[in-house]
Amino acid sequence: SFELTQPPSVSVSPGQAARITCSADAFPKQYAYWYQQKPGQAPVLVIYKDSERPSGIPERFSGSSSGTTVTLTISGVQAEDEADYYCQSADSSATSVLFGGGTKLTVL
Amino acid sequence: EVQLVESGGGVVRPGGSLRLSCAASGFTFDDYGMSWVRQAPGKGLEWVSGINWNGGSTGYVDSVKGRFTISRDNAKTSLYLQMNSLRAEDTALYHCARDRSDDYGDYRWFDPWGQGTLVTVSS
Description:
The structure holds two protein chains of two kinds.
Chain A: E1 4-5, E2 9-12, E3 18-24, E4 33-37, E5 44-47, E6 61-66, E7 69-74, E8 83-90, E9 97-99, E10 103-107
Parallel strand pairs in A: 2-10
Antiparallel strand pairs in A: 1-3, 3-7, 4-5, 4-8, 6-7, 8-9, 8-10
Chain B: E1 3-7, E2 10-12, E3 18-25, E4 33-39, E5 45-51, E6 58-60, E7 68-73, E8 78-83, E9 92-101, E10 108-113, E11 117-121
Parallel strand pairs in B: 2-11
Antiparallel strand pairs in B: 1-3, 3-8, 4-5, 4-9, 5-6, 7-8, 9-10, 9-11
């Protein structure tokens, strides 16, 4: 099995870029996905297959991958982006799923 | 509009049972796998179980194997989670989610999610 490690918190000022990392001890050649969760709401998919953005998600959300680390970047952060962000991946056969511990993004 | 609405949560004593339901609408239900994902109070997300489009393949996180059973009724466009031998650590908000995956294990993600139903295991 593997683990996904995220920083517990990230803080940025409005208009700056926020970068949230997700590191695996060994990504099993699977894609990574990112979800945004605001208080009292269900998670919402913001990035799929490492860097694809679903329809309806603002262009300021982007994803990238390098080695065993994937990164969610929010360019020009807005107050409404304050939320918890979770990365997710799967085992090599996609039969088991794992989430990172989550990162609380605070907009100062 | 795609909608997933969970029900069946409540307060149950340790060792007890509950059956969760998820009513799906707005999409062709039997074209997709489905999953349950839980979130303990103040904690992160944990995938619990998943089922493929026809119920022929299921998966569980190790901590619930032998206690929880996932099933679906495509005629009723509904997903279920039968939870037996409940423990305090099963206390969580349980979300159902549409499972986006292929037959080759190349990818798997969840979109959209329901609002969840709360399960509290307490004596």
